[in-house]
């Protein structure tokens, strides 16, 4: 996927959106047309569905940046400044404006793909065998028996890679205005860097004084520009030098842990194959030395280095099928079909937008069943980023639907209402209006309360016919104004110095005297006439307690009547504080504090940041599945904590370790102290929450602190990281990924989540309101966070069982058949003679035993979907990896070794004295070989039946159909020659074999002897070491739905020994913390999404709008223009 992106500085804005205008831009490789003339068209990113996209594109030049050789971006030194010249493109030679987030390009596909494929041990081995087979007189199986299957595998895999790496490009054109060509000057600014919150520059326009440019004027890629229809800007960074790309990380080659284990064991099998070949060579030498005199009819060979080397190669080729070449293509097909199951799942179909879940890669299907750490974004991932007024308390009386929380009502809403404001989710309590109309004793308080909500804010009303739309930089403010409107108090007009409302049939106009800036430590206050209206972060008041504990965003509402003298006296102090040079912010805070006293508390509001449907239930299930959840967000700490309580990630009594420090020493001290306080509980999961901001995290990731910080974080049940940059998100994920032996999953919906999505073992993108960048860079895409429950607990668990059983079975069946060649070597004097027909050997994996692995890999289910969702603890079976590891794999191989021993020597002993056929003919080696081959096919197919937990028509077809397929082929194959000149030695074999009574005796006895040990072992294990899985399967098989079985975290005596599959509950925290970073109190629910300390003050913003006038095109509100340009 190739896109161009720019960061730009905002110079001005106007009321037109037809075009985006540039003063100038960095040269795109010296291309003419860029600059003041604006004759070249450029593109604007439409990747994100936002109101006013402001990602500026430079042009068509490309920078090839592919998966294999793309390195982590170089962080440019901030001290290295750059100068950008207006309308002089030849002087601007900076980074080209094109990036690629695709895995492959046209030129890199072949080398990168071949590298990826031959980094798999099996493919590399079969390439080696293919080369050996081309040596004359070495291969006993021909030249092309390995080459053709290998080419088929590479072709199928290549097609799958191309399909999964498709790219999506959506752009829209814009054209620079020619009248800007008269502008000249330059901008001096810092070099490209990864810091989102910093920018230092100076704009020099010829004939004008220099204008300082800071981070407030920088529009980053993906910026949402509201209440503005078009802008003037200068492009300062392009392509790989944009701040977003400076925060990007290297796109990694992702492989599942199961694949890594399999590759390692294939290497071990290769070593075993070399040992077998060496043993066979030595055995051949010894046998010839011992029996050489008696075998005068065999031409003798001199024992020398040359012949020994050829013998080694011959035996390597003879035994090479010990390594399952069919495993690779089988897994490719199995995983592709598993991905289709995910794509077709109607339970993960978001009908509101008609969006299905999408597996963008199938390589990690089984990894979904092993996730231990889940890293989640907040806004747009857990929440809908839609604020609604839910409750309020006025004069001690609480109003609002007590049962309207999203976690209680989410299931009642249709998917089309999941992230939309509906009547069910708006403030709805007729008691408030009745009290207002019926002269209730609190009527005056109610009126003053609603009036304050209409007046004290920075919202801008826009009329659309008879409707009024509210635009606000803070969604909380918009929610309060909309809530008041629903109750009959309507904010209608804003001018630079007044606001007008309609209430109770009358119109009221309030003069705005001053606006006191909002901060996290003080109120948002407007002085209207001589009344001071205040919306403040709450104290822990008794009447607000229930709202706090409900996890709603709470603000206190208060006012005070001021005399004219009091106001004038304060105004003098305010003017002095606003003009001081040093510590102006603190001076203003002190000035505000002198007037923000003796407020009369009217009540409090409770705003809900709408969670997506079933987020609390999903998080509860994932926690019970022993998945630890970390929330990584760029939002404020108070907001993140509030959402964590809303979605049940945090509980009311959970101690919270809050790390907010300004230096490395302070960070190290508080982390070390917390680790000491935990003592022996350090490293164990405790009922604790760790909360840290981005500034502190920068110090926590220092090499001296990182180890203790990680230990502290791993000791907590939940971790919240706030105010993080995209790079910090990726660093957190990488820290856990590298130092903890566990599978990580990152989920997000925006461009700032791409880094952690690419870094985690599994990346999941949510196709939400912030565009497609997250989904385009993810491994799996879903439309709602709640779909993660089924993706992991059902598809993940099923895919893990299916893939691992398929792998184990493929190893088993290959060892069973091809070790028999080793046993036969002891009888044929290690001559390299094969016991089976050559084509039968080739078709063993391709045809006769191909169906059972597919039925295991596609249709197998450890238990039903309902049981997996009902008992999330079942997920720990796949999570711990106890069903597939090196030990389990080699137990299976040893079992196959035993079976091969029985399958060879038992029929051999049956025919030890040979037998005479009708007509006096005797048997040959193929007679014995066909006996054994038939028993092998029957045994391995029945073994697949023993491994099957979920029988269906495909299971029966795969097992019984494979046996029937071989018998039919055997009958037909015996009569092909001489009609078809192939395998003349097989002629008439079926007539000899099927009439032999020994064959039918062995047909039932030999597989029974092989498998009886497996049946006995399975019965003993399921009886004496019963697990939760067996309990659930018993419930399903008996159809008893009310079986006394532990639900969720309960235990029954029958499953006590299983310990709920190692899914322990968190340790109760009984630790005495000796530092003040730990908050043991109840949550206060205080959060307000208002930007603090911006370049444009809230008072300037309020004074900038006059909704009574229509603004001509090309004009700018004077206050805002002054704030930006001067």
UniProtKB/TrEMBL annotation:
Mg(2+) binds at residues 377, 379, 749, 753. The active site is at residue 377. Its main location: membrane. This is Phospholipid-transporting ATPase. Keywords: ATP-binding, Golgi apparatus, Magnesium, Membrane, Metal-binding, Nucleotide-binding, Translocase, Transmembrane, Transmembrane helix. It is a multi-pass membrane protein. Residues 776-1025 form the P-type ATPase C-terminal domain. Residues 1055-1064 have a biased composition (Polar residues). One of its GO terms (molecular function) is phosphatidylserine floppase activity. Residues 1040-1067 are annotated as: Disordered. Belongs to the cation transport ATPase (P-type) (TC 3.A.3) family. Type IV subfamily. Its cofactor is Mg(2+). ATP binds at residues 377-379, 477, 518, 553, 633-635, 723, 729, 752-753. It comes from Camelus dromedarius (Dromedary).
């Amino acid at each position: 996927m190739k896109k161009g992106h720019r960061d730009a500085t905002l110079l001005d804005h106007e009321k037109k959106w037809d075009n985006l205008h540039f003063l100038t831009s960095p040269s795109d490789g010296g291309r003419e047309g860029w600059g003041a003339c604006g004759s070249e068209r450029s593109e604007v990113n439409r990747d994100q569905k936002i109101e006013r996209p402001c990602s500026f594109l430079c042009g068509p030049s490309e920078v090839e940046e592919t998966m294999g050789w793309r390195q982590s971006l170089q962080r440019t030194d901030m001290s290295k400044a750059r100068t950008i010249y207006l309308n002089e493109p030849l002087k601007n030679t900076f980074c080209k404006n094109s990036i690629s987030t695709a895995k492959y390009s046209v030129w890199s596909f072949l080398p990168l793909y071949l590298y990826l494929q031959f980094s798999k041990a099996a493919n590399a081995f079969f390439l080696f065998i293919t080369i050996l087979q081309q040596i004359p007189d070495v291969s006993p199986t021909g030249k092309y028996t390995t080459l053709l299957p290998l080419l088929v595998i590479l072709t199928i895999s290549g097609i799958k890679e191309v399909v999964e790496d498709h790219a999506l490009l959506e752009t829209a054109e814009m054209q620079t205005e020619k009248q800007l060509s008269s502008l000249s000057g330059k901008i001096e600014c810092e070099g490209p860097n990864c810091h989102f919150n910093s920018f230092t520059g100076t704009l020099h326009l010829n004939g004008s004084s220099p204008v300082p440019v800071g981070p407030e004027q920088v529009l980053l890629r993906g910026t949402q520009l509201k209440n503005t229809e078009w802008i003037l800007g200068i492009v300062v960074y392009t392509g790989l030098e944009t701040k977003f790309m400076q925060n990007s990380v290297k796109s990694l080659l992702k492989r599942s842990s199961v694949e890594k284990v399999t590759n390692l064991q294939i290497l071990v099998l290769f070593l075993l194959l070399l040992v077998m070949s060496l043993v066979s060579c030595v055995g051949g030498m010894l046998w010839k030395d011992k029996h050489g005199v008696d075998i005068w009819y065999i031409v003798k060979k001199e024992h020398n280095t040359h012949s020994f080397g050829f013998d080694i190669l011959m035996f390597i080729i003879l035994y090479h099928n010990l390594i399952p070449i069919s495993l690779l293509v089988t897994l490719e097909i199995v995983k592709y079909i598993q991905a289709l199951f995910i794509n077709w799942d109607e339970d993960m179909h978001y009908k509101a937008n008609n969006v299905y879940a999408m597996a963008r890669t199938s390589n990690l299907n089984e990894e979904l069943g092993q996730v231990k750490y889940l890293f989640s974004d907040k806004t747009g991932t857990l929440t809908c980023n839609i604020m609604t007024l839910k409750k309020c308390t006025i004069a001690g009386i609480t109003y609002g639907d007590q049962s309207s929380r999203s976690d209680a009502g989410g299931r009642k809403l249709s998917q089309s209402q999941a992230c939309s404001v509906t009547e069910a989710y708006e403030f709805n309590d007729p008691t408030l209006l009745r009290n207002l109309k019926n002269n209730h004793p609190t009527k005056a308080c109610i009126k003053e309360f609603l009036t304050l909500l209409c007046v004290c804010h920075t919202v801008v009303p826009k009329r659309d016919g008879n409707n009024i739309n509210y635009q606000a930089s803070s969604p909380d403010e918009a929610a309060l104004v909309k809530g008041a409107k629903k109750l009959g108090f309507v904010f209608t007009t804003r001018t630079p110095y007044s606001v007008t409302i309609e209430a109770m049939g009358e119109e009221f106009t309030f003069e705005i005297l001053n606006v006191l800036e909002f901060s996290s430590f003080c109120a948002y206050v407007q002085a209207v006439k001589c009344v001071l209206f205040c919306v403040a972060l709450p104290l822990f008041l008794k009447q607000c307690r229930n709202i706090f504990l409900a996890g709603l965003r709470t603000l206190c509402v208060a006012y005070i009547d001021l005399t004219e003298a009091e106001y004038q006296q304060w105004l003098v102090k305010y003017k002095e504080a606003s003009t001081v040079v040093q510590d102006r912010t603190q001076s203003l805070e002190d000035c505000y504090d002198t007037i923000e006293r003796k407020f009369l508390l009217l009540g409090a509001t409770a705003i809900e940041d709408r969670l997506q449907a079933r987020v609390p239930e999903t998080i509860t299930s994932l926690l019970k599945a022993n998945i630890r959840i970390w929330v990584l967000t760029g939002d404020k700490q108070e907001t993140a904590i509030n959402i964590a309580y809303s979605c049940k990630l945090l509980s009311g009594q959970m101690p919270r370790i809050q790390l907010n420090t300004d230096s490395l020493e302070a960070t190290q001290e508080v982390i070390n102290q917390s680790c000491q306080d935990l003592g022996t509980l350090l490293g164990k999961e405790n009922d604790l929450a760790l909360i840290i901001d981005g500034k502190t995290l920068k110090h926590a990731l220092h090499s001296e602190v990182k180890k203790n910080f990680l230990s502290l974080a791993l000791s907590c049940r939940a971790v919240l990281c706030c105010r993080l940059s995209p790079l910090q998100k990726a660093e957190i994920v990488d820290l856990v990924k590298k130092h903890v032996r566990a599978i990580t999953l990152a989920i997000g919906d925006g461009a700032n989540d791409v880094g952690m999505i690419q870094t985690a073992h599994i990346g999941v993108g949510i196709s939400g309101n912030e565009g497609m960048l997250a989904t385009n860079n993810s491994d799996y895409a879903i439309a709602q966070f709640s779909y993660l429950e089924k993706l992991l607990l059902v598809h993940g668990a099923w895919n893990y069982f299916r893939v691992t059983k398929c792998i184990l079975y493929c190893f088993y069946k290959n060892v069973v058949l091809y070790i028999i060649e080793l046993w036969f070597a002891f009888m044929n004097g290690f001559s390299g003679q094969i016991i089976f027909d050559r084509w039968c050997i080739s078709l063993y994996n391709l045809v006769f035993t191909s169906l059972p692995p597919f039925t295991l890999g596609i249709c197998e289910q450890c238990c039903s979907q309902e049981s997996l969702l009902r008992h999330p603890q079942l997920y720990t079976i796949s999570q711990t990896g106890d069903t597939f590891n090196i030990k389990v794999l080699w137990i299976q191989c040893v079992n196959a070794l035993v079976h091969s021993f029985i399958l060879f020597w038992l029929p051999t002993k049956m025919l030890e004295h040979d037998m005479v056929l009708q007509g006096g003919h005797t048997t040959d080696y193929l007679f014995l070989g066909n006996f054994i081959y038939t028993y092998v096919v029957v045994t391995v197919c029945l073994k697949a039946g023993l491994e099957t937990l979920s029988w269906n028509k495909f299971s029966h077809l795969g097992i019984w159909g494979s046996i029937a397929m071989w018998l039919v082929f055997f009958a037909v194959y015996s009569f092909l020659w001489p009609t078809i000149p192939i395998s003349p030695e097989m002629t008439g074999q079926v007539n000899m074999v099927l009439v032999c009574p020994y064959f039918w005796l062995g047909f039932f006895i030999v597989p029974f002897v092989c498998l009886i040990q497996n049946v006995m072992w399975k019965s003993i294990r399921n009886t004496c070491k019963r697990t939760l899985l067996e309990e659930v399967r018993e419930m399903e098989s008996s159809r008893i739905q009310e079986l006394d079985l532990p639900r969720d975290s309960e235990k029954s005596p029958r499953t006590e020994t299983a310990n709920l599959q190692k899914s322990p509950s968190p340790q109760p925290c009984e630790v005495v913390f000796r530092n003040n970073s730990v908050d043991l109190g109840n949550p206060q629910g205080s959060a307000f999404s208002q930007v603090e300390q911006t370049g444009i003050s809230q008072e300037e913003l309020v004074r900038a709008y006059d909704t009574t006038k229509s603004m001509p095109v090309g004009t700018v509100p004077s206050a805002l223009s002054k704030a930006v340009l001067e």
